Amino acid sequence: MSTKAKNKRASSPKVSGTKPGSTKTSYTKPMNKKKAPVKKVHGALLTTVLVIMGVHGIVAAYMYYSMSTAPTVQRPWIIGMMVLHFLANIAAAVGIYYWKKWGLYIYGASTILALVAGLISVGMWSVFYMVLPLAIVGWLLRTKWDYFE
Prior knowledge:
By secondary structure, the protein is mostly helical. The chain has five helices and no strands.
């Protein structure tokens, strides 16, 4: 092989996936390219539900807390559980709004807490009242699970 051919081969850019001397070229994707971030849209209905969750949590926590000192209350620890449930719902609404997985976990745990308190105090009727909001939020988030960090 002549020195001219050797210099030409040495100076030509190397293409990955080809053999030296091959005329076939292939291109690979650069490794450092990042995916474009997905635009996370809440939507009007989800935003409305999260605002209602927050406002309802504030009002209900205050009402239950003020009711815990009433002399007719037989089980004040159940009222304490409900206050904790509503405060957790406020934190969950904020977490879900900012697409954090911990918001979903807190919301699920607070629903279980409210179910226990409702079953002890009211009975089976509380199951519908406690599970329905969880089902609604789950239905609204069914297409947005990938948004959560």
